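pipeline/complex-builder :: batch 7 item 3
reading input block
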Amino acid sequence: MNFEYLIRDVYQKIKNIEDKGEIASYIPELSKVDPKSFGVHISTINQVNCGIGNYNEKFSIQSIAKVLALILAYRLVGDEIWDRVGVEPSGTAFNSLVQLEADKGIPRNPFLNAGAIVVSDILISNLRNPKEDFIDFVRSISNNTSLGYSNRIAQSEKEVGYRNIALCNFIKSFGQIQNKPSDVLDFYFDLCSLEMSCKELSELFLFLANNGLRVENNEAILSESQSKRVNALMQTCGFYDESGEFAFKVGLPGKSGVGGGIIAIHPDQYAIAVWSPKLNKKGNSHKGMIFLEEFTTRSELSIF
Amino acid sequence: MNFEYLIRDVYQKIKNIEDKGEIASYIPELSKVDPKSFGVHISTINQVNCGIGNYNEKFSIQSIAKVLALILAYRLVGDEIWDRVGVEPSGTAFNSLVQLEADKGIPRNPFLNAGAIVVSDILISNLRNPKEDFIDFVRSISNNTSLGYSNRIAQSEKEVGYRNIALCNFIKSFGQIQNKPSDVLDFYFDLCSLEMSCKELSELFLFLANNGLRVENNEAILSESQSKRVNALMQTCGFYDESGEFAFKVGLPGKSGVGGGIIAIHPDQYAIAVWSPKLNKKGNSHKGMIFLEEFTTRSELSIF
Amino acid sequence: MNFEYLIRDVYQKIKNIEDKGEIASYIPELSKVDPKSFGVHISTINQVNCGIGNYNEKFSIQSIAKVLALILAYRLVGDEIWDRVGVEPSGTAFNSLVQLEADKGIPRNPFLNAGAIVVSDILISNLRNPKEDFIDFVRSISNNTSLGYSNRIAQSEKEVGYRNIALCNFIKSFGQIQNKPSDVLDFYFDLCSLEMSCKELSELFLFLANNGLRVENNEAILSESQSKRVNALMQTCGFYDESGEFAFKVGLPGKSGVGGGIIAIHPDQYAIAVWSPKLNKKGNSHKGMIFLEEFTTRSELSIF
Amino acid sequence: MNFEYLIRDVYQKIKNIEDKGEIASYIPELSKVDPKSFGVHISTINQVNCGIGNYNEKFSIQSIAKVLALILAYRLVGDEIWDRVGVEPSGTAFNSLVQLEADKGIPRNPFLNAGAIVVSDILISNLRNPKEDFIDFVRSISNNTSLGYSNRIAQSEKEVGYRNIALCNFIKSFGQIQNKPSDVLDFYFDLCSLEMSCKELSELFLFLANNGLRVENNEAILSESQSKRVNALMQTCGFYDESGEFAFKVGLPGKSGVGGGIIAIHPDQYAIAVWSPKLNKKGNSHKGMIFLEEFTTRSELSIF
């Protein structure tokens, strides 16, 4: 498969469609990005790397960082993590509060805000200097020391993140948060402020296409079984209330963020990152979703 | 991969574990089955076929028939079907009524009872003799004229199916059922009464592992894209409130029924059917789930 | 208090306000009424009776009949009725299905459709000829043999009452309906088709202002305690999702119907019936609510 | 009516029944009270005052203070308060979060925690020194300078009040809290820490039985209409998920607190306060509810 040709071709086709999405505005800082930004980068296990458009520009990866938090927590505590957070899709955001109540503070999966807050709590309990240790981990598995948090974005979220403060305290009221809610939230907001480019994202996440091993040196970041399970979770829960739609149209495990980024994994093949800031009504990148649908249709590669 | 050896080995291992499940008892007829029944059959696109245990015994496939109803409706009306039913996981059964209300009678996916009732309504509107035409379709794609409904099971469901009568009339109250509720329910209960053996199931569903084409003659039952989408739906929604767990542990698209049957698909490889009547708390075959987890772990084959 | 003067004065004031309500249209037959109909009738325990406008015209009392069904069931089975139906307000219609699920088929109160369906089931189990016996009871306590069902309205409801069919079968699925759903629904739809004039309503319900005793002859229709409890239920649950608003603005126990009728009780004083078919967004008579608010404000009589 | 005799008689009867309730334990400080405490005090508009048992002992009035907060806010902003909080019963606690979401941060009524938090926000916006001004108001309308907050209780709530922190931030996320959540919560926790005896409660609340006027000097604390409306709210919403039951069995407007106190109002007659710390499953004083049911049954005085 000539991925380089295919990516360029699909990119040109999608680049000029009307973008009906809207930039996330609930955090003032997020709305400052250029709405026309559009970048794509693919990294294959055969060491093909190619990008197009704004693939080298850093953006706020937001919820994509939840996968990284999950990975580190999974390494640290193993399957005990599943005592604190489930592996089921959640239905709608609307239901998540009801379900938290019905499930007594156990979030349905680690990619809901509630779930990532619980994962943050686990990390705080298991890291000496959570904020530093986490970024060190991300840098080490990507061999990229330039990765970092955006204080600007984190601060912006801390000022208006009432919904997340509510979630964290609600879970705490069920005894399912062990640390102080303010510490957990601080870490969670830092987490979501991580900035990466499409190139950095696809390179970082490639190990999930390679059974948990870094392609460069075969170092195990996760066991094969853990790696498959993280992919399975991205497949069923990675796109909020549009996870089924993504599986249906794109057919790959993936994760989106409200910064307009999407990472998708084709096991045994490649990792691909797309970035376009305008979001559809479900909160996923409008152009990003269309690009990936077209890309997997044209490449005739989906896991199904 | 020597599937024959592997299946026998895993079968022997799982056969004697304690079965903590319980036979479905809400329909009196269903509870008459031998609780120790246990059968497995695999069919590969390379024409390997092998079974073990009660793989040749017919049982009530129940909700597995929802996939067949979806396939026929998808053939008949194409993507218009998605105007009437969604493609998203539903969260819990508990939420499905709330979601039906919030979504004004559009079920979240075709594998919920609500969704299959809507698919039944579509079939009734598009078939001349729904009950006969449907079984003819199933027989034709499986090249197996022995397949049929169980009047005994269908009658048993019609007598106590209050929850489904409620669902159908609730959807009708939103104007999302076009035929008479009693006609739709009659057809739906017939559908769920279909009986097949593991052998028949894995042979019938093999085309979903083969991009929609029957392996024997390359006849297209679904287009490649439709076939992938049906698999994606089974991946995200096939196991009620345990769909995430199945993706997580087994990693294959599949569908279960309260009769204790499970069909799972490995795209480009095989279809496998398992039957063991005792159900876990989520309503899926207790031994069947364990068998498939062990089988995919041992074969190191999951789609992730 | 000169009720006659006050009623005329308030009637003239309210008669000409713009009526922003809408006639109930979900049952075709209900929408055939003259939207400008407006009648009021009061009956006091001091035997004052006076009416104005269309007070002598029969209309479909709809849900007001739920109070009559409750009264007869309360007489027949006493406090056992509260094993089958609660006495708490329900929050919104939206929640009633969720609550039915959470409460395993026990409706929150007898004035919800779900609750009245359960009361209908109790009546069927305890009456020899439910339809005839019920109308005989209503005629006897009102000393008015002209009262009767409207076959036209009942038939109209039976044809489109999908939501109620859904509710009845849903409750049946929890084992909380003892008779056949179709029998229960038949009786329930007959019940709701009762027709009365404002005059007949206020005369019939006057015993609830008189501690359960008919004013003419002191015959006990309910015990004093039962009568108070029926009033308490009307106070907290009589106006669907607007019960709090009615208590807040009018301050009397009462019950409304989608035919545009309202009955209200002032204990130890009077019963008053209002009819105006256009409904506000909560399903209660728009002018009727305004009339009663003005009437209790002007009379300085509320129970609070 | 010889209230003095009746209260003593009912008190003796109820005193020795087995108390199946449990003391509130979610706030450590609350559980330090003597579980056998039991006091009653009545104050009539004819200036009869009598108490029995621990009627002169101060206890934590908890949610009863929500009525006082409502009264002060109602005085300060009039009917504008109803733009921020509704007047409808809420169904269950379970639903309140769903309803807050559906109603975009408008609580169903001012006696829910969510509603009292919004009322607290209104008070903070309208008082110069909220904490001092509020206690001054309470002292002035009761002519009792000994009333005050319990720092011990307030501190205890601030340390474990995660559910209320969640509620406040959730409402803030809808833009329905104007001040800083931490300020609103501080005030709310102070509010709930108010301590009074039964004697002080019944004397303070007597004006609600007197159309809003203090009995001693006819000073208007609320207008007649406002006073009736506060009573109506207590009738429909004063006892959490047991409001219907209280109306049904006791038949008076009232308000309970998890400290085991209940205040009830008989318009035009009296205010009565009961205290017994063990709570029933709905969070209301077990003995208090039984006492009031027996008292109104024996006195044949209910508003219905």
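note: Chains C and A do not touch (no CB pair under 8 Å).
queue -> next item
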